[in-house]
Design goal:
By secondary structure, the chain is an alpha+beta fold. The protein has 21 helices and 14 strands. About 40% of the residues are buried.
Length: about 525
């Protein structure tokens, strides 16, 4: 007689096993600090010479993410290089990710799967093509209260590591119940995908810098939008060829040669400056830029070669001691590309550019220079005050990771990016000709804090006789009855003009954005 199946017997069908909900990265606190500062969970080459061996080095260019249980050997590996290293378990949320990853089950066999649809619930670990947005870390687990406290003390030495913005917890049980299986598996071989993160990090700095440049005017606002949304057609409204090419560069990390010489020279300089930051041989960005100009001149006609030679000569004097004033040098080189290069040699950091003003410079000059300065500093090189815009780090983190995957052609889809932050100018530029109540309130806050001469008071009076009285208290208007209304207003045209001329502090920017509720 045929035996009927036991309806209450536990099923072993893979389709009925629940896939892991927690994916954990095993690392140490110093690597974690660096990744938080960079905005990316990234491969070893992304760290330059600041990398300590952890699980990322087992399969370079891949991020090992463990399911509920992590191997003890992976924890030990992550603190093996230095005695001051502390193990950390970073929980990563992969709910928005789609694409091909490598997965290993309990049998240790590694196979390629489509994530997440082909998860069967038996995965020990995944190998995901790097990088991932650091904002996908939902919590950071420590071995003990002492480790957690030591890590929180250690991070105070690093101004650009916002560790306290992440949830931190003691995960003693996860460490105590670590598995005994070997890590890394010696029988698994994968192609080395390790690569530097210079282009994505430069792109992140461009986003931040152009957000600040968005207050200058229409070109700044458009460039800011393109920086965050490179496919936006608004780039076509930017007449300057150097700036209008920004969107194309941000989509692939490079540009094809064009017929526009200034565009080729500018973006060629950007590429060389970006690349020199991870060069095995230390290089000064200004020297790299000069070498690029000299090599590029060989392909130009005699007239342009002569102009480029004169520019290079003046740039060399700026790097040393020049007999000419800045104004005289700007007057000798009125072309946009030349002025941008002058700025690059006159100031060394992004923050310096935002503070530099000269009457001969135009809005496109500052915007294009911001792109080149960002290429030199990168996201890691930006001071915290230039990154301290609400939501900016999350927005940039996602977009940098997405760019890295486009460049690497990994096929990984990180989902829709978070909405971009808007420059203050854009927040005060409604489609209608009048401001709403929150914009009026925010404009008053900004004008008062900045001590701008653009506030006026309107007193609405009824019909009647008025007397002007001047006494020890000032000038008074006397009339019978009450004033119909007293309103404090901001002169919009004057306000926008002053906004373009003023560098707004991150503290004041946050205060204004709070009033605007953005």
């Amino acid at each position: 007689m045929e035996t009927l199946p036991d309806l209450f017997e536990a099923s072993t069908s893979p389709s009925l096993v629940k896939p892991p909900v927690r994916w954990q990265l095993v690392t140490n606190q110093r690597n974690l600090f660096y990744m938080i500062a960079a905005g990316l969970i990234m491969p070893p080459k992304g760290f330059g010479n600041k990398y300590y061996q952890d699980t990322l080095s087992a399969f370079p260019g891949w991020i090992p993410l463990f399911s509920e249980s992590v191997p003890k050997a992976a924890i030990e590996r992550s603190v093996s290089e230095r005695s001051h290293l502390l193990p950390c378990l970073a929980t990563v949320d992969l709910s928005r990710m789609r694409g091909t990853v490598m997965a290993a089950g309990s049998d240790g066999e590694l196979k390629e799967i489509a994530f997440p649809v082909e998860l069967d619930g038996r995965e020990r670990f995944l190998l995901v093509p790097a990088p991932l947005p650091i904002s996908w870390i939902t919590s950071i687990g420590f071995r003990s209260r002492e480790d957690k406290a030591a890590c929180e003390t250690d991070v105070r030495d690093f101004a650009n590591v916002p560790l306290l913005e992440f949830k931190r917890e003691v995960s003693a049980r996860s460490f105590a119940e670590a598995a005994d299986w070997a890590w890394p598996p010696t029988d698994l071989v994968l192609a080395d995908r390790d690569t530097t993160m210079d282009v994505p990090l430069a792109a992140g700095a461009m986003m931040a810098m152009l957000l600040h440049m968005g207050n200058l005017g229409d070109i700044g606002m458009r460039a800011s939008r393109v920086a965050f949304d490179p496919e936006a057609e608004i780039a076509n409204l930017i007449s300057d060829p150097m700036i209008s090419a920004l969107g194309a560069w941000l989509q692939t990390g490079h540009l094809s040669e064009s017929s526009d010489v200034s565009k080729n020279l500018f973006w060629g300089t950007v590429d060389k400056v970006v690349a020199c930051r991870s060069s095995a041989i230390p290089a000064i960005p200004q020297d790299v830029a000069l070498a690029h100009l000299e090599s590029s001149s060989e392909t130009l006609d005699e007239r342009m070669k002569s102009a480029l030679s004169k520019l290079a000569a003046d740039l060399r004097t700026l790097a040393g001691f020049s007999d000419s004033t800045v104004t005289e040098i700007f007057e000798r080189h009125p072309k946009p590309f030349s002025r941008v290069m002058m700025l690059f040699f006159l100031r060394e950091k992004c923050a310096d550019l935002l503070e530099f003003k000269h009457p001969l410079l135009t809005e496109p000059d500052y915007v294009a220079a911001a792109i080149l300065f960002a290429a030199r500093d990168g996201w890691l090189g930006l001071p915290i005050q230039l990154r301290d815009v609400p939501g900016l780090q999350t927005v940039v983190s996602h977009r940098m990771a997405a760019l890295a995957h486009r460049i690497g052609e990994t096929g990984i889809d990180l989902g829709s990016p978070p909405p971009r932050p808007l420059p203050l100018r854009e927040l005060f530029a409604p489609a209608s000709k009048t401001w709403g109540s929150t914009q009026k309130d925010a404009a008053l806050v900004l004008a008062r804090e900045s001590k701008w001469d653009c506030i006026q008071t309107r007193v609405s009076l009824g019909k009647g006789n008025y007397r002007l009285v001047v006494d020890g208290t000032g000038v008074n208007i006397l009339f019978d009855g009450e004033a119909k209304a007293v309103a404090t207003e901001v002169d919009r045209d004057r306000f926008v003009s002053l906004l373009a001329q003023t560098q707004i502090s991150s503290k004041l920017s946050r205060k204004v954005r709070d009033v605007l509720k953005v």
